[in-house]
Amino acid sequence: MIFVTVGTNEAAFDRLLEAVKGLQTGDEEIVVQHGSSAIRPANASRTYDFLLFDDLVEVMRSARVVVTHAGIGSIMTALSCGRRPVVAARLVAHREAVDDHQLPVARRLEAAGLVTLVEDLSRLDEAVAKAGEQVEVSLGADERLVTELRDYIRDAIGYSR
């Protein structure tokens, strides 16, 4: 099963859901949590506006592949379920977010081997076809990553000591 989630953001993520329509999955089931988007991919066997957290975890654990927006909560949940998610960042240019904060975070997590980032959604099918191996992800302290994320957040909010 392929599980697609756009998270709980109030903005639609139509660009991702349009790309899901093009997935060539054979007989593999597609389940979509579409949030506030009006798009319901016709190839999805089940769609949900939102899922309770426990239900989300259950679906992620059952999935061969998790495709998600690049929200840190969705990424961390997928990783905790043993899935290296395929991620797409919400972008301000498409009115999917108030800023482009998801992109640098997703790029850094991809460099760390934790996610597969798809910046060009015309390549989503290719990324999903290659994805799906269950992974043992160690979420222990990677001091460099923690420092980079802390610095990024501080810069983003204008925090200074």
Itemize the secondary structure elements and their pairings.
Elements: E1 2-5, H1 14-20, E2 30-33, E3 46-48, H2 53-62, E4 65-69, H3 72-80, E5 86-88, H4 102-111, E6 116-117, H5 124-130, H6 143-157
Parallel strand pairs: 1-2, 1-4, 2-3, 4-5, 5-6
Short summary of the structure?
This protein is α/β, with parallel strands linked by helices. It has 6 helices and 6 strands, in the order βαββαβαβαβαα. The chain has one domain: 3-Layer(aba) Sandwich (Rossmann fold), CATH 3.40.50.
> What's the helical proportion of residues?
25-40%
Q: What is the CATH third-level topology name? A: Rossmann fold
CATH architecture assignment name: 3-Layer(aba) Sandwich
**Assigned CATH superfamily:** Glycogen Phosphorylase B
Structural class of the secondary structure composition? alpha/beta
Strand composition percent? 5-15%
Radius of gyration of CA atoms, rounded to a whole number: 15 Å
Query: What's the oligomerization state?
Result: single chain
Strand order of the largest sheet: 3-2-1-4-5-6
Number of domains: 1
| Overall 3D form | globular
Number of helices: 6
What is the N-to-C order of secondary-structure elements (H for helix, E for strand)?
EHEEHEHEHEHH
CATH C-level class? Alpha Beta
C-alpha end-to-end distance: 47 Å
How many strand units? Answer: 6
Unreliable runs: none
Report the major sheet.
6 strands, parallel
**Would you tell me the overall average pLDDT?**
86
